[in-house]
Amino acid sequence: MEKNLKSRATINRMQQKGLELFYQKGYYTTSLDDILKALQLSKGAFYYHFQSKEDFMVSIVQHLLFRKVYSMLIEPIEGKEDPFRNIETCLENALEIAEHNPMDFGFVLGNFMNEFNGKNENVSRYLNDICKAWEVSLVTALQKGKSDGYLERHHDSEGIATFVISSYFGVRSLMVGGNPRMLRYQYMQQLRCYFKSMALKSTF
Amino acid sequence: MEKNLKSRATINRMQQKGLELFYQKGYYTTSLDDILKALQLSKGAFYYHFQSKEDFMVSIVQHLLFRKVYSMLIEPIEGKEDPFRNIETCLENALEIAEHNPMDFGFVLGNFMNEFNGKNENVSRYLNDICKAWEVSLVTALQKGKSDGYLERHHDSEGIATFVISSYFGVRSLMVGGNPRMLRYQYMQQLRCYFKSMALKSTF
DNA sequence: GGGGAGACAGACCTGTCGGTCGGTCGGTGA
DNA sequence: TCACCGACCGACCGACAGGTCTGTCTCCCC
């Protein structure tokens, strides 16, 4: 049992560092040696715990990425209040973290989806599942918002969710290139403008 | 002189195929041999015309990508009419092309920006320049729109441009994953909704 | 206290990558 | 006709990738 604990600790360290480096330098352009060197571990250690590089990546997505996206982007918008307000503050927080800590997990998702699209169907599927979960939570929040009178019923919840996800992935992509503070400000202002045009009980 | 023509033809073929494969499979995951095999050419031919793989990529960005982005995303919105209308039809066209032909150049730009961010400063610079050119053209169109009474002066043109670019990059990214037709429809509907909330002389 | 299993070390294998380099070939001008 | 040059060929190189395999260390259990 003590052994099992040590094993888990090592696996966690590997996954953490793996996510970090894969995100920073890209999956295909980061070698296992890069990760193992940073952790002071060997090939033997790696292949003792994982079957392959791809298996390693899948484990990162399933265990680390999913949890992070859930806690940062899904859970915060499950409130009972104005869905626009919830989504807005949620994204504002995410972008604020992204400004200081380069590894905000909402965008890690988008980044990986881009990298694996058309290259690795297996990993892509897991990533798409997470993205889908985010989308569903957005749609659910918006539908509830309709019941609670925050937006009119004729609005397309799925469309709004798509637009929110798209714009967020996009702006995070731009932020990596520079001027994160300004981009965040501009983005949030426009998002508010967009939401405002649909809101009924305006709390803006 | 005849020789020079042949040389240019070969260079063009290489750049075309290079862009195609780099976009489909990624720059770092596409080998020169992949490209040369598709063209029935040899390493010797490649290194006769280009100094390195990076040099090759830069030449593609400068010559092919820039021109395409210019003709597809910049030129079409330089009209005198309603900037919202212009941008809208421009993106609609781009997405329509993207739906049938997987290589729409607006997104090739976004895709490459993602891939080279933080990995190759040299290539990134050229890509950012093109993106900046697009942004400038959007801002210019919006500013002219203010003069012509299509939107109120208090709106932030830079912010709108950022939001448009972000959302477009984002939705194109999602489209690669599947359901391009639906995503395009949803995106355009929401974009119209967003624009409508700012338009003065509504032509919608 | 010794043996067996878990956790890891690291040399090594094989394939592929970007890049090099001597050689080839067809057209062209003298 | 023959030297020459632009355009190209393809064998080869060293670096490095993912993955394998054998050996080793350290606990725990009997």
Q: Can you lay out the helices and strands and say which pair or pack?
A:
2 copies of one chain form a homodimer.
Chain A: H1 2-25, H2 32-39, H3 43-49, H4 53-74, H5 83-100, H6 105-116, H7 121-147, H8 157-177, H9 180-196
Helix pairs in contact in A: 1-2, 1-4, 4-6, 4-7, 5-9, 6-7, 6-8, 7-8, 8-9
Chain A binds a DNA duplex (30 and 30 nucleotides) through helix 1 and helix 3.
Pfam families (chains A, B): TetR_C_13, TetR_N
Protein name (chains A, B): TetR/AcrR family transcriptional regulator
Domain HTH tetR-type (chains A, B): 8-68
Please identify the top-level CATH class of the largest domain in chain A.
Mainly Alpha
> Which chain pair has the greatest contact?
A-B, 45 and 46 residues
User: Low-confidence parts of chain A lasting 5 or more residues at pLDDT below 50?
Assistant: none
Please give the alpha-carbon distance between the first and last residues of chain A. Answer: 54 Å
Element pattern of chain A in H and E: HHHHHHHHH
Number of helices of chain A: 9
Rg of chain A: 19 Å
CATH architecture of the largest domain in chain A: Orthogonal Bundle
State the domain count of chain A: 2
Shape of chain A: elongated
CATH fold annotation of the largest domain in chain A = Tetracycline Repressor, domain 2
Would you mind describing this structure in some detail?
The structure is a homodimer of 204-residue chains. Helices cover 76% and strands 0% of the residues of chain A. In chain A, α1 (2-25) crosses α2 (32-39), α4 (53-74) runs parallel beside α7 (121-147) and α8 (157-177) packs antiparallel against α9. Chain A has 2 domains: 1-50, Orthogonal Bundle (Arc Repressor Mutant, subunit A); 52-196, Tetracycline Repressor, domain 2, CATH 1.10.357. Chain A has helices at residues 2-25, 32-39, 43-49, 53-74, 83-100, 105-116, 121-147, 157-177, 180-196. Chain A is elongated. With 204 residues, chain A is mainly α. At the A-B interface, α6, α7, α8 and α9 of A face α6, α7, α8 and α9 of B. The structure holds a DNA duplex (30 and 30 nucleotides).
